[in-house]
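ok so i was messing around last nite and threw this chain in just to see what happens. nothing serious, just curious
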Amino acid sequence: MPCSSTTPPHSTGLAFDIDYRYMSPAEQTFVMAQLAQLKIAGRIEVIRERNANYHVFAFVNGTRPSDELITAALEKAVQPVVQAQHAPSQTGEP
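result:
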């Protein structure tokens, strides 16, 4: 599936996150080894995000997309999470 520079990779299925917060050390080691093998093989790009997950960008047919697309996806992946601001309740409670 082609991916334009305006389509977010998560929306295309080309990027996904793997949450490792609840993995044992052995499971984390296994996942990291698998991701490293795929990266070395040129099938994915992966970064370890601050919020306890790996951001994985898969390459279509093993073909690396443009550096601009990867950079844009990775920049969005490491941006700080913005907390939602909820309106105060009608009863005066926060």
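not much to say yet. Residues 25-40 form the longest helix (16 residues).
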